[in-house]
Every structure is written in C-alpha cells, then in structure tokens.
Amino acid sequence: xxxxxxxxxxxxxxxxxxxxxxxxxxxxxxxxxxxxxxxxxxxxxxxxxxxxxxxxxxxxxxxxxxxxxxxxxxxxxxxxxxxxxxxxxxxxxxxxxxxxxxxxxxxxxxxxxxxxxxxxxxxxxxxxxxxxxxxxxxxxxxxxxxxxxxxxxxxxxxxxxxxxxxxxxxxxxxxxxxxxxxxxxxxxxxxxxxxxxxxxxxxxxxxxxxxxxxxxxxxxxxxxxxxxxxxxxxxxxxxxxxxxxxxxxxxxxxxxxxxxxxxxxxxxxxxxxxxxxxxxxxxxxxxxxxxxxxxxxxxxxxxxxxxxxxxxxxxxxxxxxxxxxxxxxxxxxxxxxxxxxxxxxxxxxxxxxxxxxxxxxxxxxxxxxxxxxxxxxxxxxxxxxxxxxxxxxxxxxxxxxxxxxxxxxxxxxxxxxxxxxxxxxxxxxxxxxxxxxxxxxxxxxxxxxxxxxxxxxxxxxxxxxxxxxxxxxxxxxxxxxxxxxxxxxxxxxxxxxxxxxxxxxxxxxxxxxxxxxxxxxxxxxxxxxxxxxxxxxxxxxxxxxxxxxxxxxxxxxxxxxxxxxxxxxxxxxxxxxxxx
Length: 580
Prior knowledge:
By secondary structure, the chain is an alpha/beta fold.
C-alpha cells in the first residue's frame, strides 16, 4: 500500500495535523500479486464509467435500447408494479425473478424513460461498472497488475457486454453478482484458513446470494456451491465454527430464504409452487409452443454433447471476434490446468516468481474459488439438454438467432483464465527470450483492442440477434401504438398485454388505463362483457380477448385489422354502448 508523506512535518501544531502530500512513494514491489489498492481501482472505475456512457450514447443514437422483446417485457413488468389497476407485490409474478424489476423502480416511474428504455439502461450501466471494478479486484488476487489489466480490458471492452449494459436485460446484473460473489468467497476462504473471524463477510455473501437467487436461476446453483465451499472450510476449523455459529446460521437462513420464498410466492399467486418451471410462461411451455410440429426438438435435446458444443461455441463467438474464440477457449482451459497444477504442487513461487514479479504466498488454495466463474457452463449444458432452453447461433445449424446472450455468462471465466495462461507463458518466455516476454502483454492488449473493433465492425452477435428478432415485432407494435394514440385520453382499453406491452409503451398509455390479465377480477369481468366494460378492445391472434370477442360480438364495431409478416393479426374494436 503506498504511504503518503507529510507535506511539512515541522509545521504541525497542537490540535492540528499536516495534510498528506499528493506525492507518495512508489510501490517497491509493483508486480506483487495481492489485493488491489485504491490507486489501482480509480482508473479502472473511471474507464468503466466512460465506456458505459459511450455505449449508451451510441445505442441511444441508433435506437438499440428496445430491440430485445425481453427488455421491453422487463420494463413492462417493472412499470406495472407501480402503474396498473392492481399495483403491488402480486405484479412481481411470472417466470422471471423479481430483482431486475425492483432495481428499475426508481427510474421506471418516469414515463419518458419507460418509453425510450432509459429506465432499464441506468441500472444496467451501474452494474456493468460494478462488475468491471469487481473483476479487476478478482484478477489481482491471482495475477500481476499488467495481466489483471489485460483480463479486465478483455472483459470491459466486449461489445456484447457493452450493448447489454444499455438495455433492461439481466446479464449485467448477474455478471456483477457472479464476480463479486467469487471475489468475496475467495477472501472469506483465505480469512478462514488464517483463523480470522469472518462473521460480517458471511452476512454480506449471504445477501449477495439472495440477490443472485432473485436475479437468475443459475444464481440458485451458485448460492448452493458457495454455501458448500464455506461450510467445508468452517467444518475443518471447529474452533472458528463455534465462534461463528450465529453468523453462519444467519448466512444459511439467508441462502435458503431465496428459493423458499419464491416457491411460496408462486404457490400464493399462481397456485402452483413450481409455476416458474411448468406454468404457461415457463421455458418448458414456450418450447412446446414454438417447436416444429411432430416430435422434433432442437439438436441439444437430451444430448449433453451437443448442448456442450452449442454453449461453448456461443460463448466463444460472444467473447471474441472472427474465429479467435477457439484460441480464447483453449487458453482458458489451459489456465484451469495450470491453476490446478499450481494448487496441487503448492509451489506458486517456483512457477510464477521471476526477476520482475513476486508472489504473496498467503494466497494459495483459496484461489480455487475462482472456478466458481465456470458454473454457468454445467448449468446451461443441463438447461439446453433437459431444461427446454435451446440456443441457436448463425455459426451452427439451423443458423438462427435465439438466446445467444447466455454465452455471455462465461465471459469472466474466459477472460480471467486465459490471462492466467498467458501470464504463465510470459514467465516461461522470460527465461530464454526476455525480449519476447516484454512484448507479450502489449501484443495481447493490441489483439484485445483489434478483437473489440472487429466485433463492432461486424456487429456483435447479441446485438445482431436483437436486430434480427425485432424486425417483425417492432413494426407490429408501432402499428398498434399508432391506433392507440388516436383513442380519447383516459378511456379504458381491453387488451392482453403480456406479449405486446411494447405497443402501450410506445403510445405512452398508462397501464392502469388498460384492462389486462394482471388484474384477474376486472379482466375476466371484461371478457364476459367486452362492450360494457371497455371503450376499445384490441384482440391479437387467438388470445383471450379474441376469444371473448368471438363469444360476445354484440355492440362491437371492428375498426381496423393490423397484420405484419411474422406476427398474428390485431383487430381493433370500438364499443357502441360503453358509458364511462
């Protein structure tokens, strides 16, 4: 840690202390592997802030914020918590977990930010910045500064991540939680092995696990893995476990509370404690509705080999331009082997110390906690094979776009472990070819910059998927929004909003003005008498509103039929008898 020098020690008087000088002594060991200092973190944080705002300006100027239908839906769920006929806790319901919608609440109440997508962009940018800061801190636990910087640059400059950081998608939030949980777990294990009390750390980790559980379902597996790691190390230290029994007990309760409370929520509001797994909006039901006729399934169905290929290939294309993803994956896998070898030999000093580097030997086997970054790999392989979660990318048959963003969750693992392998290569080069060793890291940084530019030039995969899959949805919702804008202000509109809340968003119609499925009583009353309950009715395809109109067509006048390629037709009706 740099030590500040007094500006003028002789001028110190009673009750006064001299201010520390802005000049400080340089670190005598700048390449020590150790926790990052504040002086290191400030430039990283400022760079992340600049990248986030640069990405936001670019995406706003090109109308990229609302390309993903899921982003529009996340914003719609957050909006209906405060703006619907029946606001409150019950509006959290659905397959998606609640935390991403909760963090949007301070922003979603601004109607303009809901319409343009900024309500989702602000929190995503915050979590992107937090993720970059945490990732650098994590890298410094096992890498010297120059390679920690290279790994962080690879992570922070990824165009797919920068794009997602401007949307209402959940990836920036979960990646930040994954990184910080990995970092804090490593630190907690190190403290336990040093027989240090870690009661507060356990509570903080428990709260972050709760946040991860409420963000994505892979957070459930992550939380269980972290609990097992910490419990294992505490059990091996009975004296410390006795001292930490209250903290560890509370940590366990918090860890379990997340999944259990979600089961209870689904039972209370959906009358099925596994509604998120088998309900009408679950991945299983969506897969049944969208798969081809007959008994056809995607190639990874019940085939973990194909599932592994699809997910790792997606992660490669998400991480690196052109076909450099293969090199990145190979380096990352080599990094795992090297880390395990160093742990097994318990001799990092011999493997990593050179004339220009030094290693803090207090960080040894706890570095295995960094393997938590690889947890998305088995989770998504299982999800593709047995969880009705297909992934399609244009690089593999059937050459389509679907769920390519899931590969982003492996980005921290690829960045950290590839850098670990390259750092070890630099050490080996320094023995026989010192000039090559000095050029190795600058060349790596140049390749990282070239990869990022190449991905932006060819349009990164996650953005291409958003553009491809929005080509029919956006014009369809714009057409509905155009009709909505012509309605008298404040009149009730009967519409099932789950699939096309974007039309209401674009028109700036408050959700409380609509009669929709989020309020069971008023919605089903309106389905029984559409003309009496609503001034205007919008039926899309064969939804519940369309069925109600077919059953009760009396006193309704059809105004217009809206059809676009790839979407069901929307029919707009006006009630002839509605009285406010």
